[in-house]
Amino acid sequence: MGGANFIGDVGKSNYISPNTLAIGGIAKWNRSPRHSFRASVIVTKLAGDDSNSHESRRQQRGYTFENNLTELSAGIEYTFWDFNNYNGNRASTPYLYTGFTYLLYDALELRPATGTILKYDTTGSIAIPMVVGFKSSVSTNAVFAFEIGARYTFSDSLDGSVSPNNDFQERQFGDTNNNDWYVFTGITFTFTFGRQPCYCNF
Q1: If you average pLDDT over residues 123-141, what whole number do you get?
Q2: In 6, 113, 125, 191, which residue has its Cα 20 to 30 A from 101's Cα atom?
Q3: Which one is the CATH code of 2-191: 1.10.287, 3.40.50, 3.40.1350, 2.40.160?
Q4: What is the reported pTM?
């Protein structure tokens, strides 16, 4: 659970400024004391409002948008130090995570007559997650973590500034040379189950 914020052509340009709720689930397979295979799903609503921007040009323009987004991600989590919560001692370490992400989101378009950005379809894209976090064992079978993760998307259409299918080109705005980003900031709880792992074969 945590918050999400958008970085693109509408609204604030702050890198870390959560303004919407994000919730999801996560699963890990600890393959060694230093790395895990990880999969997750996050559901959130990205939102931007030019009136909250520090740029006078955006404030004068006055666009707003909301986009429902579902993220599916899989990759590798790498810890800086050995992390083993089965030896009876409390374990903690910083970690990095990256992999591949698929996004399912609203296709938006600008309606010039009213200056509003509205949904007209649903579409998808891929993204690269770049996550840094810190995790600590609460007990032998529970781990708490805090993380901040930026997602670089292969799309410039999350805010409606560019059509996903290059339609409505006359309605495009903003910097079409830069793709959109969004950031998840939040906490995770994971619980171990099954037999104690053996790392001797990996």
Answers
A1: 94
A2: 191
A3: 2.40.160
A4: 0.88
pLDDT of residue 84: 81
CA–CA dist 25, 62 (Å, integer): 35
Question: Averaged over 170-197, what is the pLDDT?
Answer: 84
CB 44 within 8 A of CB 184: yes
Q: Quickly list DSSP for 112-160.
A: TTTTEEEEEEEEEEEEEEEEEEEEEEEETTEEEEEEEEEEEES-S-TTS
Cβ pair 41, 24 in contact under 8 A: yes
The rounded distance, in Å, linking the Cα atoms of 108 and 6 is: 15
pLDDT digits (tens, 9 = 90+) for 49-61: 999 999 999 999 9
